[in-house]
Design brief:
Elements: E1 6-10, E2 15-19, H1 23-28, E3 32-36, H2 38-44, H3 61-70, E4 76-77, E5 83-93, E6 99-106, H4 116-128, E7 133-139, H5 153-162, E8 170-174, E9 179-182, H6 183-186, H7 193-198
Parallel strand pairs: 7-8
Antiparallel strand pairs: 1-2, 1-3, 4-5, 5-6, 5-7, 8-9
The structure holds zinc ion (ZN).
């Protein structure tokens, strides 16, 4: 089977990897092609696709997600009360495969605080009215390592309530080894299953 030609498009907040024949709509919205895949580059250079290198880190979805979230890492005070951008996250939509980034925002009273994971999920929801997440990454300055990147209790609960299927979302806990954990394993015997079954 011929390799599908993919391009990476930077749309400011988010980076998308899309088939080349679907790139038009992203470019029309102001996106810029930032690199070609190895197969695409090889073809561009007149090299047979078959001899193109195997997918590199650039074709790795976790790398894409890391890079999308990393752009939001710039800790700052956004008012005398709010600190933001010191924890960042990205989610991949289970519906479209697109990546959405988020950052934490913490005010002077705890109830207003939003974690980066929930902001990323709401970014996805605003853009595609979808609540189902396939993958998630969260970190501070460095990508998660050795049991890192775990969502807090509020985020675990949020994602469980956001969509039934979110129990199967993969959360990366060690970026180097690409080790992941499923949300359902972080919140066993969840109280809300009964309501999903009734709907
Ligand atoms: Zn949280």
């Amino acid at each position: 089977m011929p390799k599908k030609e993919m391009v990476v498009i930077d749309c400011g907040d988010t980076t998308y990897v899309v088939p080349k024949d679907q790139a038009e709509s992203y470019l029309a919205r102001g996106g810029k092609i930032i690199h070609y895949t190895e197969a695409e580059k090889a073809k561009f250079n007149g090299v047979d696709e078959k001899s193109a290198e195997e997918p590199s880190a650039k074709d790795d979805i976790w790398q894409e997600m890391y890079e999308a979230a990393r752009k939001e890492y710039h800790p700052e005070e956004i008012s005398p009360f709010f600190d933001a951008h010191h924890v960042v996250a990205a989610v991949q939509s289970a519906k479209t495969g697109k990546i959405y980034a988020g950052f934490c925002i913490e005010g002077a009273s705890g109830v207003m605080n939003l974690c980066a994971e929930r902001v990323a999920a709401l970014n996805m929801y605003i853009n595609e009215h979808n609540t189902v997440v396939r993958r998630m990454i969260a970190f501070r300055a460095e990508p998660p390592k050795v049991n890192g990147g775990m969502p807090c209790g509020a985020c675990r609960e949020f994602f469980m309530q956001f969509a039934y299927e979110n129990r199967n979302m993969e959360i990366i806990t060690d970026f180097k080894s690409r080790k992941t954990v499923k949300l359902k394993d972080l919140i066993p015997n969840w109280w809300g299953d009964k309501r999903y079954k009734e709907k």
